[in-house]
Amino acid sequence: MPETATYVDPRRWKALIFIALAQLMVVLDATIVNIALPSAQEDLGITDANRQWVITAYALAFGGLLLFGGRVADLWGRKRTFITGLLGFAIASGLGGAAADQAMLMGARALQGVFGALLAPAALSLLAVTFTEAKERAKAFGIFGAIAGGGGAVGLILGGVLTEYLNWRWTFFVNIPFAVVAATGALLVVREPAESRNTSRLDVPGVILATLGLVSLVYGFTRAESDGWLAGPTLGLFAAAAVLLLTFVLVESKVKAPLLPLRVVTERNRAGIYASLGLAVIGMFGLFLFLTYYLQIVKGYTPVTTGLAFLPMIVGMITGSTQIGARLMTRVRPRLLMAPGFTVAALGMLVLTQIDLDTSYPALILPGFLLMGLGMGTAFMPAMSLATHGVQPRDAGVASAMVNTSQQVGGAIGTALLNTIAASATTAYATSHAAGARSLDLLKLQSMVHGYTTAIWWAVGILALAGVIAFTFINTGRPGGGSPVASSQDGEGAALGEDEVPVPVMAH
């Protein structure tokens, strides 16, 4: 490793605490509001037609601006962007908790998305430039991966507790202490090498094309869920997204200082990471969504009990990430962790396709959750590390943004795609069984469960595909076990061979 890579920040582990805390806040916010939404809808008089915008306003702003946020972190400084994102997120959360009507709530959610798009890539790229030694990097990303994977389930638990014992507004207010503690800690202990910044001019056409393209894509899947896949507005949004994103790629290949250097995404290992993570999140979002409704509506669980039911999955994710992924990452190739991890998660989801009206939680749901958690934790850990490993320090922010973009777009696609599949299967089952039904209420529940299991079957296939992609595309060797990557003309590591490993170049 080069001489310039030997500097070790003595406060790096303290910095990890505050970076991980910020990541937890962003991830759990994606699900904590879901539990509180019925209460907020009733309190503010939000119509059924408009309630989706509480979720969609956040998703559009966050997903559409992530690449821009990653580039700002590279240009402006990751620590400064990180702290700005935290404080802005806290202010937006306070506005959401104090919302007097639906417009104020949706505006606050959009503002959360804007600052989340600054915060998320800054957090991951700070981690990437702080931990460069292989074993320490594995441990740090193990913790970060567990939080990234399990934060959504933590949000379900916390959302249930706050909604049931306080009120829905506390699902917003709870972000404020998270943000203040993380920002204070970052000011005191987070250090960023100034030499790792990318001081090139901002690619304004790239920002506009990427933002409009991603917003069109995310909004297209949202409209597909409500209007149908073949509706005119849905097809128009997908067509616009395709044109905008293809134009974006063309522009990025020509401009001198691109928003997204194509070297970041054309390297086969990172391409495999982004694709497999996006697919895995499709399955994860489907599981959280359907199992939340199943446990509350079919099984009659309270919001708190529903959240606690997901606890074994969180334990599994933490165990898979910190005890399996982190311990084995320096000993085996990443694909030998990611592909089996996604496969185990798919097996856990396969178990959950067997749910019925009288399914036992300990006998069937619990084993499914544990397998899901172990598999996802094991796969997420090397994915989070490898997605930024080997990139030039000046590209760390945008490479981190791509990780978040693949997950955010995957979540939007998963919610829309699997919801549509479930709704179609539910309607078909109810229609075909209506004649012989003894009770309309019973038929409604049976149809609902049939819809959920049909969608979960699709999610099993999607997770299996994520495993195949991870095994096929990711061919780098284990961290610390290969030779340094030769530099190419543009300064990025050359394509990685079967026994090569990317080595981060860290300026002193």
TrEMBL record:
Family annotation (NCBIfam families): efflux_EmrB (TIGR00711)
Listed GO CC annotations: plasma membrane
Region: Disordered, residue numbers: 481-508
Superkingdom of the source species: Bacteria
InterPro entries listed in its UniProt record: EmrB-like, MFS, MFS_dom, MFS_trans_sf, Sugar_transporter_CS
SUPFAM superfamilies, sorted: MFS general substrate transporter
Pfam families attached to this UniProt entry: MFS_1 (PF07690)
GO molecular function per UniProt: transmembrane transporter activity
Membrane topology: Multi-pass membrane protein
Compartment annotation: Cell membrane
Record carries keyword Cytoplasm: no
Name of the protein described by the UniProt record: DHA2 family efflux MFS transporter permease subunit
GO BP: any one term: response to antibiotic
Transmembrane segments: 15-37, 52-70, 82-100, 106-129, 141-162, 168-190, 202-222, 228-251, 272-295, 301-324, 336-355, 361-384, 455-474
Signal peptide: none
Domain Major facilitator superfamily (MFS) profile per the UniProt entry, residue ranges: 15-479
Keyword vocabulary terms for this entry: Antibiotic resistance, Cell membrane, Membrane, Transmembrane, Transmembrane helix, Transport
